[in-house]
Design brief:
Layout (H helix, E strand, L loop, with lengths): L6 E14 L2 E14 L3 E6 L5 H8 L7 E6 L2 E2 L5 H10 L1 E4 L11 H12 L3 H14 L15 H13 L5 E5 L7 H18 L2 E5 L3 H4 L4 E6 L2 E7 L6
Parallel strand pairs: 3-8, 3-9, 6-7, 7-8
Antiparallel strand pairs: 1-2, 1-4, 4-5, 9-10
The structure holds adenosine-5'-triphosphate.
């Protein structure tokens, strides 16, 4: 991460409540967070503390009850649905615990899909997808469909897919929650190396404190707000 820190994503006083009949569940209570360009940030916290909810709000997959989220100064919840979808496809990458690959498409097609959606030249998109699959060690599995890949291989395809459009920010929710310890280490190392090379910021929600400790910064979700755990880079929240 560079010494000069430029804000990329700004979460300003975000709250989230769910209403179900008479019952109101307060999940987030005024979360403030700045993600800097190129930084690698982990969010930890107990089950049900609101980590995934926050990640979804950061990625326009769920809306806040109040507060704002700005990506490069653009207020994400003031955008039209069409512009939000464009931001999701071009500027954000997502990696989930379960790969969410399209089952009927091959590895290379899955990786190229966000580039096709972006309208990039099809041949070039496939070349880029092949290069990325080479980078994650799957150059020999281009034509396999997800059912023909192992769990770790599927996650590596998902990483390549998340990066194909060179997003500003990759959001990952327990990306290795489904893998054994050595595959998890491997997948994390790969995400971190590629994110660094692409100058992509990376925010991961995880229960794995050992992996979280390897990131530039680590925050804990507690009582609906984020608390600082480790402050490697010296920035104030
Ligand atoms: N649609 C919903 N309606 C009501 N409550 C919800 C809804 N979605 C989530 N919640 C509640 O919000 C809280 C936070 O959920 P969230 O998935 O963000 O937690 P988390 O920290 O990611 O948990 P975990 O580590 O177990 O994945 C939970 O208590 C959950 O029950």
């Amino acid at each position: 991460m560079s010494q000069i820190q430029t804000a990329l994503l700004q979460v300003n006083h975000v709250s989230k409540q769910y209403h179900d009949g008479e019952v109101t569940t307060h999940v987030l209570s005024g979360v403030d967070l700045t993600v800097y360009k190129g930084e690698q940030l982990a969010i930890v916290g107990s089950s049900g503390s609101g980590k995934s909810t926050l990640l979804h709000i950061m990625g326009t997959l769920d809306s806040p009850t109040s507060g704002t989220v700005l990506l490069d100064g653009e207020d994400l919840y003031k955008l039209s649905a069409a512009r939000q979808a464009q931001v999701r496809n071009n500027d954000l990458g997502f990696i989930y615990q379960f790969h969410h690959l399209l089952p009927e498409f091959t590895a290379i097609e899955n990786v190229a899909m966000p580039a096709f959606i972006q309208g990039r030249d099809k041949k070039q998109a496939l070349v880029d997808a092949k290069n990325l699959l080479d980078r994650v060690g799957l150059g020999h599995r281009l034509q396999h469909i997800p059912a023909q890949l192992s769990g770790g291989e599927r996650q590596r395809v998902a990483i390549a897919r998340a990066l194909i459009n060179k997003p500003k920010l990759v959001l990952a929710d327990e990306p290795t929650g489904n893998l054994d310890a050595s595959s998890a280490d491997n997948v994390y190392a790969m995400i971190r190396e590629l994110a660094q090379q692409f100058d992509t910021a990376f925010v991961v929600v995880t229960h794995d404190h050992k992996l979280a400790a390897k990131m530039d910064r680590q925050l804990t979700m507690k009582d609906g707000v984020l608390q600082v755990v480790v402050h490697h880079a010296g920035q104030a929240e």
